[in-house]
Amino acid sequence: MVSRYELRELLQTLTPSARSALRRVLIQDEAHRTAIAVILASYRDPSDYALDDLIDSLRIDPNACAYAINTLDEIEAQVEAESR
């Protein structure tokens, strides 16, 4: 399992399209953990095992999913603010 700090760091490493796709899956169906793995796997570098930990955390811990959604929103707001 990853800590909240590690979760935030991992989410920040995702591309904007990966963050958007992940957020949609988490919001639409938090119980469908396989979709989370598929979304993240399609965006990950095969040598990046940290994302494997992220996938495991999101599949196991419903609180991690809620935190991830909030964190993705914060990252998106920060990106938008920086682009102005």
Account of the 3D structure:
- By secondary structure, the protein is mainly alpha-helical.
- Helix content is 79%, strand content 0%.
- The chain is globular and about 35 Å long.
Task: Report mean pLDDT, rounded to a whole number.
Answer: 80
Query: Helices and strands, in N-to-C order?
Result: HHHHH
**Helix segment tally:** 5
Main sheet summary: none
> What percent of residues adopt helix (DSSP H or I)?
over 70%
Report the portion of residues in β strands.
Answer: under 5%
Number of domains: 1
What is the number of beta strands? 0
The coarse overall form would be: globular
Distance between the termini: 36 Å
**Which structural class fits the helix and strand makeup?**
mainly alpha
C-alpha Rg, in Å? 12 Å
Instruction: List low-confidence stretches.
Output: none
Outline the secondary-structure elements.
Blueprint: H1 4-13, H2 16-28, H3 33-43, H4 50-60, H5 62-82
Task: Write a brief caption for the model.
With 84 residues, the chain is mainly α. The chain has helices at residues 4-13, 16-28, 33-43, 50-60, 62-82. α1 crosses α5, α2 packs antiparallel against α3 and α3 packs antiparallel against α4.
Key attributes of the depicted protein:
84 residues, globular, mainly alpha
